[in-house]
From TrEMBL, chains A, B:
<keyword id="KW-0805">Transcription regulation</keyword>
<dbReference type="InterPro" id="IPR011075">
    <property type="entry name" value="TetR_C"/>
</dbReference>
<feature type="domain" description="HTH tetR-type">
    <location>
        <begin position="14"/>
        <end position="74"/>
    </location>
</feature>
<dbReference type="GO" id="GO:0000976">
    <property type="term" value="F:transcription cis-regulatory region binding"/>
</dbReference>
<dbReference type="InterPro" id="IPR001647">
    <property type="entry name" value="HTH_TetR"/>
</dbReference>
<dbReference type="Pfam" id="PF00440">
    <property type="entry name" value="TetR_N"/>
</dbReference>
<dbReference type="InterPro" id="IPR050109">
    <property type="entry name" value="HTH-type_TetR-like_transc_reg"/>
</dbReference>
<feature type="DNA-binding region" description="H-T-H motif">
    <location>
        <begin position="37"/>
        <end position="56"/>
    </location>
</feature>
<dbReference type="Pfam" id="PF16859">
    <property type="entry name" value="TetR_C_11"/>
</dbReference>
<dbReference type="InterPro" id="IPR009057">
    <property type="entry name" value="Homeodomain-like_sf"/>
</dbReference>
<keyword id="KW-0804">Transcription</keyword>
<keyword id="KW-0238">DNA-binding</keyword>
<dbReference type="GO" id="GO:0003700">
    <property type="term" value="F:DNA-binding transcription factor activity"/>
</dbReference>
<dbReference type="InterPro" id="IPR036271">
    <property type="entry name" value="Tet_transcr_reg_TetR-rel_C_sf"/>
</dbReference>
<protein>
    <submittedName>
        <fullName>TetR family transcriptional regulator</fullName>
    </submittedName>
</protein>
Length: 199, 199
């Protein structure tokens, strides 16, 4: 009966989807974005090319979803920054982890490729901001708002500006390879940004 | 006599060089980096393709020199930031001007194209840092050092970090088109960065 086959088909689809997104991320790390092809993704994922074209209109769209999948939590919940009650310690933990991720070629290569596309494509940039950047940004702002309410930041602190001052120097150093991305840099950045917005 | 023709030839060469670099910048603004060709540059500059290939090995190299030429001063002197003695006013003037430049499509398009190349090419990034970024960075650091000596910044202020916190949020907002680049943003950035490093 048709009804009994639906869960199986749905499980198979989900397996294929995960295999395609994983293959996409792996291949970007190995051959780079420019040399990535739908053929290679299909071969690595063990699916037909048509399966990929049925779900995604372009290479850029698969790459985008493969990166988006990285920030999906298995429990379906949203992104949250750590909250131990100590904003200084929490931000240092997050910025140290971000610096470490950006220093890992397997992790950073696909995001670097995506950033190159975004810089030259205002429409993709808007989708990126809405789907990937906004949930992360809102998580950062929630954590900073908590710190402001706890009196660890000035009552009139501009939290958008604070978020930019925390993350932009890290992102720039990563994209332009203009200096080391280490714990010392992460800590100095948090110390200086918090000094600018303390009560 | 050969000796008497040299100045003429040298003047002609310099005229061609300037025409090629100007044509390159103009065309990037009109058609974008991806669609720019050596043929089009030669036609616009009124020189033969071979003249360009004799002086530059690739399209990227011409584009790079065309942007480098923008920061060459006619008097051959170095780059200096304004110095009225008031670090707050001077930085606001510079960051407002930078924000305005980045909002001008004719000015920003070639630099955006160059940044895309740099992000994906560690060797070009190193040349860029040495030839274009370093002189500008040193000018910023000289101005900040003057302010520190004048007691307008803390004696132990990390001027490299301060320069990153001043410029990276502006650069990121420009590259990712993540918010308006206006006087208010420039001023808020200077106010916050100076608060972090005041005496």
């Amino acid at each position: 009966m048709a009804a009994s086959t639906t869960p199986d088909r749905s499980r198979r689809s989900e397996r294929s989807r995960v295999a395609i997104l994983t293959a996409t991320r792996d291949l970007i790390g190995e051959v780079g974005y420019a040399k990535l092809t739908i053929e290679a993704i299909a071969a690595r994922a063990g699916v037909g090319k048509q399966t990929i074209y049925r779900w995604w209109p372009s290479k850029g769209a698969v790459v985008f979803d493969s990166l988006l999948a990285l920030s999906e939590r298995p429990d379906g919940g949203g992104i949250e920054l750590p909250d131990t009650g100590d904003i200084d310690a929490d931000l240092k933990a997050v910025l140290r982890a971000t610096a470490a991720e950006f220093s890992d070629p397997g992790f950073e290569a696909p995001i670097r490729a995506l950033n190159t596309e975004i810089i030259n494509d205002p429409e993709l940039a808007a989708v990126y901001r809405e789907k990937m950047e906004r949930p992360i940004r809102e998580a950062k702002l929630r954590r900073l708002r908590g710190a402001r309410e706890a009196g660890q930041l000035a009552a009139d602190a501009d939290l958008d500006l604070l978020a930019d001052m925390l993350y932009a120097p890290l992102t720039q150093r990563w994209l332009l390879r203009s200096g080391p991305l280490d714990d010392d840099f992460a800590d100095a950045l948090v110390d200086a940004a918090l000094r600018a917005f303390r009560p």
